[in-house]
Amino acid sequence: MNDQMNDHVHDRMSESATFTEQLQDRFVETQKSLPGAHESWVRVLRKSAMDQVVSQGMPNTRHEAWKYTDVKKYLDRLLADSVEMPSLNVSEEMLTAFSFDDLDSLRVVMIDGKVSQALSSLKNIPAGVRIESMADMFAKEPDVIEAYLHDQHVSGAFAALNNAMMSDGVYLEIPDGVVVEQPLHCLFLSASGDSASYHIKNLIVAGECSQVTVIEHYASIGESTAFINAGTDVELHAGGRLEHYKLQQSGSKEVNIGSIRVHQHRDSYYHSHSVAFGAALSRRDIHVEMNGEGAECALNGLYLVGGRQHVDHHTRIDHVRPNCRSRESYKGVIDGRARAVFNGKVVVHENADQTDSAQSNANLLLSDQAEIDTKPDLEIYADDVKCAHGATVGQLDMKQLFYLRSRGLSEDEARNVLMFAFADEVLTAIKVPQVRKYLERIAFEKLPHGAELDGLLG
Amino acid sequence: MATNEELTEQLKSREYEAGFITDIDSDTLPPGLDEDVVRAISAKKDEPEWLLNWRLEAFRHWQTMAEPQWANVHHEAIDYQSISYYSAPKSDDDAPKSLDEVDPKLLETYDKLGIPLREQAFLAGVKNVAVDAVFDSVSVATTFKGKLKEAGVIFCPISEAVRDYPELVQQYLGSVVPTGDNFFAALNSAVFTDGSFVFIPKGVRSPMELSTYFRINAMNTGQFERTLIIAEEGSYVSYLEGCTAPMRDENQLHAAVVELVALEDAQIKYSTVQNWYPGDENGVGGIYNFVTKRGECRGDRAKISWTQVETGSAITWKYPSCVLKGDDSVGEFYSVALTSNYQQADTGTKMIHLGRNTTSTIIAKGISAGHGQQSYRGLVRIGKDAEGARNYTQCDSLLLGKTCGAHTFPYVEVKNSTAIVEHEATTSKIGEDQLFYCQQRGISEEDAVSLIVNGFCKEVFNELPMEFAVEANRLMEVSLEGAVG
Fold this sequence. Notes:
The complex is a heterodimer.
Chain A: H1 2-30, H2 40-56, E1 106-111, E2 114-121, E3 130-133, H3 134-140, H4 142-149, H5 157-165, E4 170-174, E5 184-190, E6 197-206, E7 211-220, E8 227-236, E9 241-249, E10 255-264, E11 269-276, E12 281-290, E13 296-305, E14 310-319, E15 325-334, E16 339-348, E17 355-365, E18 371-380, E19 385-394, H6 398-406, H7 411-427, H8 433-446
Parallel strand pairs in A: 1-5, 4-6, 5-7, 6-8, 7-9, 8-10, 9-11, 10-12, 11-13, 12-14, 13-15, 14-16, 15-17, 16-18, 17-19
Antiparallel strand pairs in A: 1-2, 3-4
Helix pairs in contact in A: 1-2, 2-5, 3-4, 6-7, 7-8
Chain B: H1 2-12, E1 26-28, H2 35-44, H3 49-64, E2 87-89, H4 104-112, E3 129-135, E4 138-142, H5 145-151, E5 154-157, H6 158-164, H7 166-172, H8 183-191, E6 196-200, E7 209-215, E8 226-231, E9 236-244, E10 252-254, E11 257-262, E12 267-275, E13 287-297, E14 303-310, E15 315-318, E16 321-324, E17 330-339, E18 344-347, E19 350-353, E20 359-369, E21 373-382, E22 390-400, E23 405-414, E24 420-428, H9 432-440, H10 445-461, H11 466-484
Parallel strand pairs in B: 3-7, 6-8, 7-9, 8-11, 9-12, 10-13, 11-13, 12-14, 13-15, 13-16, 14-17, 15-18, 16-19, 17-20, 18-21, 19-21, 20-22, 21-23, 22-24
Antiparallel strand pairs in B: 1-2, 3-4, 5-6
């Protein structure tokens, strides 16, 4: 029995070894055409990241961080050629489905991993604020982004692969003291039907006491089977505030993996909302490092999955300095044969006294075929701290259900009202009303019988 | 606030009271481990063929396994070839029939530990407790045997059970913790020397609490205990286990396996006070305590309850678990763990819900001081068919000092939509507002700290049988004493 198991491990190891070799071959082929190839630091960064991928191997379920998420059957997509030109002509009208009513926003649209200048609209950008394509930054001003990228140490094979193969993305820079009123809507659309892979890299540098809202929005048109491997790096200088929305509405055959790395300086405030509705498999690693006193972060998340979807959130908050505060609340509704994974880690480093941290993860399981695996971790190396976490798995409260039924709601209506209320608690934290409304509508429709009961939402 | 610092100071310098070495000749195998050693152990114990084969199978399996690295503990690599796998007091050749025949030096050891073997003096006058005292590896004295026999309860060293009740042992040994379960369980299966065997027949309520004291004595010998408790339909037993060990400079390995089987309507209550030598204030020496404990509720409405007070050992690696197979079965885990100086503990439990309407409760309290590092690692798994399963988990950590750590790694895996699982954890130091409140009412700072620590542990101590609650309180007092009174 165990011999068999060992054999499996060997199989997998040799398989993934040959896979990473193939991946490396592909990297060598495409390396020259990737942006920044003329810069030596970029080449060094890509090379060392690729070496990390090879030495580490692609994740499998024997890895603790990937215990519940098996990516094996999708990995081949990483070897497919990315499309030269979008096969589908995306028009302005097609984007209306992914815009937020009357919201006055700045918009960058990326089609199949490339920024489309024609579809993007960047009017009235405050002076000094820069919104560029990452490919352009690599080509024309590599020095500007060098400081943030050149000696990046990432954990995880996908984050490393992203560094090795990153091609395009959004670069946002806000000077000290500037408040950007309009939210920046970054729409990442998959429009090609091919199994292509995109390594998107976004970089947000928010100056001292600056303020901005960024919406990172993944969606698809048509039957995309893309493998998206995104990386978003955030540098939040002293007193800076960032509202960061990540909306994942990928097509049902897509794989959407990505990491968000946030580096917070003193008194800065980072608020993340991660909402996952789509994709066959999606995974987000969110890592916030609070490296300055008085920093504060809040991570909210909502996942609504059904069918055979798989959704995985791994978050890590590092309290490196004293007097920082973190709040985390993730909620999930899991139906059908779907599986959800949550892992929230809070690390309080030595001397990070007066840390105040709270974390919670609540789940509603709607079907016996659905599964939830949750793991809220705490690692604490300081004593003057206040840390708490909690996780729950349960169903709707029968008493509440009865109350609504007695007021004349049908069983389905009552269930939906309660489920929606459960999920909406996360959405109420969204500060842009148009975005909230947009998400509430999708959330409601995702619920069983939601589409029929749309009227309840008002 | 001086109190926490004082407390830390006191904990740092806390002396191990039970540290002494009894000098008696041991019949010890030379260090090293191969098939011959396994055969030698089996031969020394006069074991039947099937058990030897069982051991050899475990040994061969062990050779293919790697030592687990996932626990949040750090130690020098263990050289399994430098350990002697068998050590028995000389007097084993002529096993004592009564206490009078027992090596007096041995009895003295227990006296020093304040564990008089003599019935009347037992545990400061607490009567009706049978002790199967394990000195190093061979059980040397057993009391109250007659009374238990009358009730039909079998309580004896496992080597004796192999001889007298081979079919029972063969039926249940390794049925809860298979030989290849994990690295240390496989090692234990190959080389276990002794331990306790308990069998409670159908419908019998054990007339007294069963209790065993373990002790590591001879230099450089690991202790590989094997405990097997079987509670037949409708029976009840409360089993107590306590450990102390003499002072050592070299790390000693302790890899025990405990298996519990509860059939329909049976109840097993298993309590542990563990006070192995934790190493000195520089983290030198101390016991490595890598234990596999697991109970199976095989029948409907069975109940298994683990209670543990862990104050000793340099490194603890221990997850008493419950497999809830029977419908309506119940699993409980109550734990207080204290780490100070350079102690490390990675402990917790696993609750595997398989049957319908199964319930489990986990209350884990951790106190960390000095350079102590403590992790709670737990798993709650609700299987596909575990309709109506319920779990409540609470783990709280109290931090005393700047250099200690407290970590929580709870795994929750739910595959049934009717399950209700709750997990809560908090970590904090003693609240200054709490201290202030007490002091404001005329309670001294020291008393206040003592009061708060006591309150923190109370929920777990309440679960201990009376005799043990006394000992546990004493242990915590010793551990926290100077600072609080």
